[in-house]
Amino acid sequence: MGKWVRVYSTTDPGKAAIYHGRLNENGIPAVIMNKQDSSYVFLGKVEIHVAEENEGQAKALLGDLESSDP
């Protein structure tokens, strides 16, 4: 695998974990990068990264998840 790119960013670690799991379930290897401050969790973001070659497929899947999220 080559370069990794960010495909999703949120302040909600629970949502990031669910989306990360969905990507992996669909055969898209993904990693979570938690950039939130350990003392002030409202500062910073949680990001999901995938290999560059999976970027389009990952964004499409995450877009579907976002549109179905109430």
CA-CA gap between termini = 34 Å
* Count of discrete alpha- or pi-helical segments spanning 4 or more residues: 2
Round the Cα radius of gyration to an integer and report it: 12 Å
Largest β-sheet summary: 3 strands, antiparallel
Range of helix content: 25-40%
Number of beta-strand segments? 3
Q: From the structure provided, what is the oligomeric state, counting identical versus distinct chains? A: single chain
CATH class label: Alpha Beta
CATH architecture field: 2-Layer Sandwich
Notable characteristics:
single chain; 70 residues; alpha+beta; Alpha-Beta Plaits; three-stranded antiparallel β-sheet; 2 helices
Structural write-up:
- The chain has one domain (4-68): Alpha-Beta Plaits.
- 39% of the residues lie in helices and 26% in strands.
- The chain is built from 2 helices and 3 strands, in the order βαββα.
- The mean pLDDT is 88.
